[in-house]
Amino acid sequence: MIKQEQVIEFLRQKQESEGGYTGEDLTELAELLGVSPRGMRMRISYWIKTDKKFPQFIYLGKENPQ
Predict the structure, then answer these.
(1) Range of the structural domain that residue 8 is part of
(2) Is 45 within the bounds of a domain?
(3) Average pLDDT of the segment spanning 46-50
(4) What angle do CA 54, 59, 60 make, to 5 degrees?
């Protein structure tokens, strides 16, 4: 099960340290939570549309910027 609080904290840390999150970060988070990367992306996409806490996070792209 994906816990929203854990995802918010992870994304907040990425936002503060790197200016946003990447697809690679979501894959890392999925592994930590024991879910599939696809499931993680789908859940975050849903939360972005339905929860006011999520649109504040910036998606930087599929891979970490150089």
Answers:
(1) 4-55
(2) yes
(3) 92
(4) 160
Tokens 């599939």 belong to: 36
**Distance separating alpha carbons of residues 36 and 52, to the nearest angstrom:** 24
Confidence check: pLDDT of 62 > 80: no
Number of residues written out for the chain: 66
CA 16 to mean position of chain CA atoms = 13
Within-domain flag for 24? yes
| Nearest Cα to Cα of residue 57 among 24, 8, 23 | 8
Condensed to tens digits (0 to 9), the pLDDT of residues 19-34 reads 999 999 999 999 999 9
Predicted TM-score (pTM) of the model is: 0.82
Residue 20 placed within a domain: yes
